[in-house]
């Protein structure tokens, strides 16, 4: 007898873990705007705020990079566009101070960056970095 497996309904969900309730509306807007611009109608993305040490461990385990980064993205299931985006708390606070804007703005910028990574954009070489950051800056400007 064949077992019938029900596929989940198509959804558009962004979950936020570790962020303050005050930050979530802006971060959700940043994620949804990016996803809309990339023509992603159905998705489930988890945004997780982690310590520098936790993000370093993720980098070591999955990217074989022994350093702290501000964001790391994992596309878990491509067909339904399900992914996890980890954002470093302390690194992003330092970056916000360095660039002269609020922590919330820095988090929004990295939400956009992480979603673009899920969509296939990379910043590992100058050519692709230029393309990705232009798109990222354009979306970021629409938020404010």
Largest sheet: 4 strands, mixed
Order of helices and strands: EHEHEEHHH
Low-confidence runs of at least 5 consecutive residues: none
Mean pLDDT, as a whole number? Answer: 93
The CATH architecture can be given as: 3-Layer(aba) Sandwich
- The percentage helix is 40-55%
Total number of domains: 1
Q: State the assembly state of the protein chains.
A: single chain
Query: Which descriptor suits the 3D outline?
Result: globular
Please count the beta strands (DSSP E, at least 2 residues each).
4
Query: What's the N-to-C terminus distance?
Result: 57 Å
Radius of gyration equals 16 Å
Instruction: Indicate the proportion of strand residues.
Output: 15-25%
Number of DSSP helices?
Answer: 5
Q: What is the top-level CATH class?
A: Alpha Beta
* CATH fold description: Collagenase (Catalytic Domain)
CATH homology superfamily name? Metalloproteases ("zincins"), catalytic domain
Explain what the structure shows.
- The protein has five helices and four strands.
- Strand 3 (71-77) and strand 4 (82-88) form a beta hairpin.
- The chain is globular.
- The chain has 144 residues and is α/β, with parallel strands linked by helices.
- Helix 1 packs across helix 5 (126-143), helix 3 (89-99) packs across helix 4 (103-118) and helix 4 crosses helix 5 (126-143).
- The chain has a single domain (13-143), classed as 3-Layer(aba) Sandwich (Collagenase (Catalytic Domain)).
- The chain has helices at 24-37, 52-63, 89-99, 103-118, 126-143, and strands at residues 12-17, 43-50, 71-77, 82-88.
């Amino acid at each position: 007898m064949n077992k019938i497996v029900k596929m989940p309904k198509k959804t558009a969900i962004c979950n936020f873990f570790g962020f303050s309730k005050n930050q979530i509306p802006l971060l959700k807007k940043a994620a949804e705007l990016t996803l809309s611009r990339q023509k992603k109608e159905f998705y489930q993305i988890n945004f997780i705020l982690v310590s520098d040490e936790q993000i370093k461990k993720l980098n070591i385990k999955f990217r074989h990079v022994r350093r702290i980064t501000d964001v790391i993205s994992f596309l878990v299931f491509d067909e339904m566009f399900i992914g996890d985006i980890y954002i470093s708390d302390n690194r992003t606070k330092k970056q916000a101070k360095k660039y002269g804007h609020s922590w919330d703005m820095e988090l929004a910028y990295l939400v956009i960056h992480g979603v673009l990574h899920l969509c296939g954009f990379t910043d590992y070489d100058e050519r692709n970095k230029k393309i990705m950051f232009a798109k990222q800056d354009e979306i970021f400007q629409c938020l404010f």
